[in-house]
Specification:
The chain is mainly α and 294 residues long. It has one domain. The protein contains nine helices and five strands.
Amino acid sequence: MTSEASRSLTVKSLLLPLLMRPRITQYIKWIVYLSLIVNFGIYIYDDWIAYISAMASDALWFKVVEQFSTSIDMAAWLGLVFLFELETYALPDEAFKKGVAKAIHTARIICYLFVIYAAYGYTALALDNHKVTELVDLTELCQIADQGTAVQLDVVTYTQITSENCGTIPADTPFYQIADDISVIDGRALDHVQKLGWFDVVNAVAWLIVVLLIEIEVRMQWGDRFDNSTLKFVRYANTAFYGVLIFNAIIWLVTGYPVYVWDAFLWIFGFWAIELNLAEWQEERESKFIAAVQ
């Protein structure tokens, strides 16, 4: 590794010591990858619960897609991790003939399109959270008990309103409906959901920038451009946007979403595994380059 990469304070420089323990590093990496797959299943379940609780049975298809934006996002990100793992570690450089490289890059473009669409979904949901109708005739939840209506308590929690629980659900007037949702929500929960919706948007945009910077670094390493001002900028910028992602995770922690925190750090660690692959791959390509010129 170049001395510059070792001196600079970036994510990659912090990960370099792990290259001294390759077996442990691989165990950690695959534990993270398997955890991401399990996490994906949890988010599919959460989106399904939100769908059956908040969406009408005749909802337009694009509204259903928006509701499942998190699951779509997760599937695309899993695809990106898998494809980056192939290019930066699993496959040797010699395997990247024209057809293989084209297939991997095409698949990655498809994943990017889904990730961008998911970011649009987060933005649309955040905007929808501000399209509210006040239910002026609704003064207590028991008025709509046993009608198949749910009350939204926070970003992910919905409770079906029944005659048995309507007097104990922690909600108070005024009540609202968000956009085309059939669920109801009180003012306190609405304010909470509106604010955190924009953190989802910031998080999605930060991830788009992180993966774009990783893509740039991969392309630079294929061109054996290991030590220049552009690469330094890419690594410093990447580190800064990882900082944004960690800040968002802290926000979710203090607002009571430990699963979101777990998810955030799983994905950060997943892409740090790719960063580590890049560091190891750079060492290998530098060694080949030096051997070729001697």
